[in-house]
């Protein structure tokens, strides 16, 4: 501490302060060379240059620094800057006023909206810095900006039913192609900077294609990005320690890994029950005690590991079922995950008590949404060793009701009023690429067989029209309602059931608890086993509803219905 004071005093007497420089130099009270978009002083010191007002996004955390050359400490993984080329070529890369307008739109609208309730250095700092130093990233974010801007300002289908792309689509594709071409030299270089540029661009491609409704291409980009990240781990880290997220520090590597981690979790929740492993997570979960969380990022980091432990258990349970072997050894593993979830909840409750009272509505939403996902994980771990047993969910109706109550509290914090766009178009102004409410609502609608509860979840899905990464609210609501229609076919005939409006407006969560046992339980023979929606076409024009059916002596995964987005109609393919 005394040494820190001495250095600070020396700085004040020997160095002039910066009044017009970047935020980082102002905080350090050193002279800034005012390089654009990142200053040379910050690059040389290995610090995050938070720019000149709009570039930083308010993230002033710098737990990790890159030591000066020759200091004998640190590693390439610790750097928090990415600039590999001077920004002087920006005027050459952006040749029109339209391109510069899209870049401005990205600064003020896209980069602040797409992360949703969770602020990340990837969106607020890294992406802009990389875009101003690498043409591949720059063209990718201009294409992404055009998708969002066009969706907000133009309420019309994008290239729907047309063989020739419209002007906006051509603009998007032009920059999309330029971004891919600009990546070719990086694939040949295969050094640290090249891998980072490729990974950052890949995240933008995933976000862009998910927003456009090109979900198949977006999934391909995500899988390629995860493979590239696995391949790059030896280059991006100088040690042999596992390549994973460190929630207590801010660095380029951590921002990239964090974003891939969240996209992976989002997609795995969409693909259930057919989860895919990810090298970022050790399949053997360690139930070490969670003492406390110092940030929302740390809480998500721990919950990511718990979710992936649940996915691993589910995969192993399906393997045991197919091989007709005992799954008893998995129960100890599940017990460890359950303990981990309980410890997480205690740490989360303590963390919530320390939050200030003046949080914005968006910040409050972020802290509450993660609690919803903990409830979802608690249900999933309880049934993960019961593959194909749809009646196992009946023991957890209280958790489904609690989940809906959490979502109602979040809904009350909404600042925006959603306006239904025509047809199957989405509400782009409310769309994000991070975690939101759609996945828990869909899970409740198809897995909770209490009529009042699942109807309440469906009505919440039908009241919104945005996207959350791969999750499309309109598609999700259509599939959930189709599942309920198939499962409850004629079972409640002659029974007094609430209509759609009643389930949405008149029945509170307390009413749901009271009426849980007022209706007969849906028999197991009526239920779809392992219902799954599959998005087809690129852009998506059809949705296939799959389930597992017993055919002869074997279980087979077959499509039972198909939804056409253009006509907004279902076609039954086979009876359940």
UniProtKB/TrEMBL annotation:
Region listing for Disordered, in residue ranges: 60-81
Domain of life, source organism: Eukaryota
Low complexity bias locations: 67-81
Pfam family, one: Zn_clus
InterPro entries, alphabetized: Fun_TF, Transcr_Regulatory_Proteins, Zn2-C6_fun-type_DNA-bd_sf, Zn2Cys6_DnaBD
One example GO MF annotation: zinc ion binding
Keywords: DNA-binding, Metal-binding, Nucleus, Transcription, Transcription regulation, Zinc
Parts forming coiled coils: none
Boundaries of every Zn(2)-C6 fungal-type domain copy: 21-49
Matches recorded under SUPFAM superfamilies: Zn2/Cys6 DNA-binding domain (SSF57701)
Protein name, per record: Zn(2)-C6 fungal-type domain-containing protein
Source organism: Coniochaeta pulveracea
């Amino acid at each position: 501490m005394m040494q820190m004071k001495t250095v600070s005093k020396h700085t004040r007497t020997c160095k002039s302060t910066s009044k017009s420089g970047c935020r980082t130099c102002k905080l350090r009270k050193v002279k800034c060379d005012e390089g654009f978009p990142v200053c040379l002083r910050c690059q040389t010191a290995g610090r995050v240059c938070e720019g000149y007002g709009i570039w930083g996004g308010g993230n002033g955390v710098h737990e990790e620094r890159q030591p000066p050359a020759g200091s004998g400490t640190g590693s390439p993984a610790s750097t928090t800057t990415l600039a590999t080329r001077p920004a002087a070529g920006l005027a050459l890369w952006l040749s029109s006023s339209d391109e510069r307008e899209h870049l401005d739109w990205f600064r003020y609208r896209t980069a602040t909206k797409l992360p949703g309730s969770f602020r990340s250095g990837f969106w607020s700092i890294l992406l802009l810095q990389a875009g101003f130093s690498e043409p591949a990233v720059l063209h990718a974010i201009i294409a992404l900006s055009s998708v969002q801007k066009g969706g907000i300002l133009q309420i019309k289908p994008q290239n729907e039913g047309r063989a020739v792309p419209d002007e906006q689509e051509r603009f998007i594709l032009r920059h999309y192609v330029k971004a891919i071409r600009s990546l070719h030299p990086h694939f040949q270089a295969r050094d640290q900077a090249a891998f980072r540029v490729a990974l950052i661009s890949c995240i933008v491609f995933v976000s862009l294609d998910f927003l456009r409704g090109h979900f198949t291409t977006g999934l391909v980009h995500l899988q390629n990005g995860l493979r590239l990240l696995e391949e790059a781990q030896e280059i991006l880290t100088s040690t042999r320690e596992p390549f994973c997220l460190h929630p207590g520090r801010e660095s380029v590597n951590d921002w990239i890994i964090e974003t891939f981690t969240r996209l992976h979790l989002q997609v795995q929740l969409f693909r259930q029950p057919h989860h895919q492993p990810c090298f970022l997570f050790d399949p053997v979960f360690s139930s070490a005690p969670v003492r406390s969380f110092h940030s929302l990022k740390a809480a998500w980091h721990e919950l990511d590991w718990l979710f992936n432990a649940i996915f691993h258990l589910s995969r192993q349970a399906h393997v045991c079922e197919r091989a007709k072997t005992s799954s008893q050894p998995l129960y100890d593993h599940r017990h460890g995950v359950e303990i981990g979830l309980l410890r997480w909840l205690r740490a989360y409750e303590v963390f919530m008590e320390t939050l200030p009272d003046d949080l914005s509505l968006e910040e409050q939403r972020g802290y509450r949404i993660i609690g919803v996902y903990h409830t979802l994980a608690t249900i999933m771990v309880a049934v993960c060793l019961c593959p194909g047993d749809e009646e196992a969910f009946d023991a957890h109706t209280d958790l489904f009701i609690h989940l809906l109550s959490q979502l109602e509290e979040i809904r009350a914090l909404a600042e925006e009023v959603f306006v239904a766009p025509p047809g199957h178009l989405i509400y782009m102004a409310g769309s994000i690429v991070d975690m939101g409410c759609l996945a828990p609502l869909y899970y409740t609608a198809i897995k909770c067989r209490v009529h009042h509860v699942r109807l309440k979840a469906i009505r919440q899905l039908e009241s919104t029209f945005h996207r959350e990464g791969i999750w499309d609210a309109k598609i999700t609501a259509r599939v959930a309602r189709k599942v309920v229609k198939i499962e409850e076919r004629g079972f409640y005939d002659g029974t007094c059931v609430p209509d759609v409006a009643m389930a949405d407006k008149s029945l509170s969560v307390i009413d749901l608890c009271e009426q849980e046992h007022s209706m007969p339980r849906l028999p197991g023979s009526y239920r779809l086993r392992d219902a799954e929606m599959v998005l087809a076409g690129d852009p998506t024009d059809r949705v296939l509803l799959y389930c597992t059916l017993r055919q002869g002596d074997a279980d087979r995964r077959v499509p039972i219905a198909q939804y056409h987005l253009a006509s907004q109609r279902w076609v039954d393919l086979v009876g359940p």
